[in-house]
Design goal:
Two copies of one chain form a homodimer. The first copy, chain A, is α/β, with parallel strands linked by helices. The first copy, chain A, is built from ten helices and eleven strands. The first copy, chain A, is 43% helix and 24% strand. Chains A and B meet through α1, α2, α3, β2 and α4 of A and α1, α2, α3, β2 and α4 of B. β2 of chain A pairs antiparallel with β2 of chain B, so a sheet runs across the interface.
């Protein structure tokens, strides 16, 4: 017999991704995020892109530039989800320890990769920049990894097994993300619709909860804002089956209109 | 005998927080962050505030509105760090399951709290809003919790053991965060200084790595940007001992000047 929790979770899975769910996690690496010095912009970008292409982001973690912490997070997340995306720590300086940490997580050596050098050399020559030993650090990848092209500044990211290792600088991260996700398996797209009501959440909560019970296979969330003395609540419905989603939306609309909340 | 990894980690701890380290984690709760619909603003706010008051943020996680996932993350993080801050999921609607999940994590019942009702009643009356059963959901807290005052919209957060449960709406989160951290133990403040060079990271990487080796007790990071055809790298030095920090800064400045990089 399935417990209540399991049933709800299964209905939710069905609502959010159909039967063939592809899941992912993100691991943000960097002391500067944890100190508050840099505000992360990558989580939102990756979340939006994965939703667009039908991959369900399930978990995000942020850890500092500490090898043991990176290894532990990588090994926990790559085992649990279809894909893991990491950002940050692949530059040329001593605090860039992501490549070595990924090597340690997989138990493989990390060495300068000829294919990476071949990508970097012409780009650096064109810019009149010497390929110093420090810069060659950016060509080091774990054994067995494939490269992820960097159309912005040449030094590549890499993919090893189900782990995609991307840069932390937002523009470069974005270029690598789009390149990396071309090759990935994706699931059915999740469709969403929203209805905005000019009331506080508390006004619609009972009605909304009852509606959720009637449509357990449609994920429903409410997002309140309050500005200039006005309440506003956005009701978001999400489901991979677009007919079922429309049925839930129309029903909710009718209920709100009856209560004069629209 | 201590391994290399342990020594580096200990030096880093000393650099970042002195001997009496108070650590923290953040758990962001909400489907809307994982779908990319809402861009998180709270991680950066909390990170900055904790750094200001001498608490070292060590890890952040984001999970969806799934009780089992919240419980697992809460129990892992509250055991590992001095404090855990959660954001999100304490509103009045059915998708707000944080209070129940925290109750489940601690194995205690969650019930309407008279002190919370006493805080909410006058504020709601003043705004001419009825305290409906849905709104009373926001007065439910796990047994044994203390309330965290919400100066923005009355419905409180709560603290149970070392876990602070805060709202997700940024303005309310901020008010609760400042209220909650008044009572907490804090460590020595970490001081930081930075030097900006108009070069790419690759130019300074060797020099910077050698300097880090001379000052293992000062945490050093480099943060590159590239805009309008110009490279810019910010070198950040952090240490709780301000004399030692100044010594490292002056030394780095001298080295950069000698190489005509300043």
């Amino acid at each position: 017999m399935m417990g209540r929790q399991t049933t709800i979770k299964m209905n939710r899975e069905r609502a959010l991704s159909g039967s063939d769910i592809i899941t992912a996690a993100v691991l943000v690496i960097g002391d500067e995020i944890l100190s508050g010095r840099t505000k992360d912009q990558n989580i939102g970008t990756i979340a939006e892109h994965l939703t667009d292409i039908g991959i369900a982001l399930r978990e995000v973690r942020v850890v500092g530039d500490v090898e043991a912490d990176i290894v532990a997070a990588v090994n926990a997340l790559r085992a649990r989800y279809t894909y893991l995306f990491t950002t940050g720590g692949i530059g040329p300086t001593h605090d860039d320890i992501t490549a070595d940490s990924i090597g340690a997580a997989f138990g493989v050596p990390v060495e300068v990769d000829d294919r990476a050098v071949a990508l970097m050399k012409p780009a650096y020559e064109a810019r009149g920049i010497a390929l110093t030993p420090a810069r060659l650090r950016m060509a080091r990848v774990p054994a067995g990894a494939e490269l992820i092209v960097n159309s912005v500044s040449a030094a590549p990211g890499f993919k090893i097994d189900n782990v995609m290792v991307l840069a932390g600088v937002p523009d470069i991260m974005k270029a690598m993300l789009f390149a990396a996700t071309q090759q990935l398996r994706t699931g059915p797209r999740v469709n969403s619709v929203s209805i905005v009501v000019r009331s506080a959440e508390g006004e619609i909560a009972d009605l909304f909860a009852a509606h959720q019970k009637r449509f357990p296979d449609v994920a429903m969330g409410s997002y309140p804002t309050f500005s200039e003395g006005n309440y506003r609540t956005e009701l978001v419905l999400r489901c991979s089956d677009s007919e079922r989603l429309e049925e839930a939306r129309a029903g909710l609309s009718r209920l709100l209109a009856e209560r004069e909340l629209l």
